[in-house]
Amino acid sequence: MTTKSKRVRSPAYPAVSLKLAIKKAQEFYKVEGRNEAFLTVALTHWGYSPNSGNGLKLVAALSSYGLADTTGSGKNRKIKLSDLALRILLDNRENSLEKNQAIQSLALKPKIHQKLWNLWGADLPSIENMNHHLIFEEGFNEKFVNSFVKDYRETIEFSQLANVQNGEESDGHEEIVEELGAPEDSASNPSTQEQVTTTERSYSNVSLSNTDIEIAKYPVAKNCTIRVIADGPFNRKAIEALVAQLNLNLQLGIFDDEQDVEI
Q1: What pLDDT, on a 0 to 100 scale, did the predictor assign at position 227?
Q2: Could you give the strand order of the β-sheet that contains 37-38, starting from the edge strand earlier in sequence?
């Protein structure tokens, strides 16, 4: 008696990179604009047949990234671009920080992307180690893990999340959207650039080395004070990058599971 091998089903993940997903959203906009379209018609805009499996995977990826909204079911299923997609596609301003932040927010919207970002950040391990982790820790089917890793790495690179993590200026997303850039460098405030003179100070069980700079200390709750510490000189652009990262984490709900504190 022969037994049929059990198929390993990967966790939900977008079937294309964010770069390609935005390109497909742009193609949809050129034909339909802000209008809702029947899904069977939308698939033909992308060169798929109405019942194409790969076409449906593309639609699922657009939804996963937050680029498109779908309604209805069966033959009545419809699709339209999301407000966030329109904000990206129609933002033709130079140096648009909002567009850049929107793209970075979409990059981490899929749950598996958020999980891997929290694990590795922008400092990704080798492809081999990524594959091993995804297969044995995340339950990916080994037949599809390579394509996911390729798309994920492209998404992180395209969205320039490494720049947010490192407090650097974005280089732009010139192939798909208008050139992006962070605000121009502001003059550094000498008072914020002074190095800590003592070799080590300890506050509330946090040690500061001689290169650490305490930027600010904010009482935010009855028994909680948040301290912002830099491990070297910083400027206005670095603070803006910090604010952008915190806003991104709030949008993604990363802090939602933290214990409530009395305000």
Answers
A1: 78
A2: 37-38, 78-81, 68-71
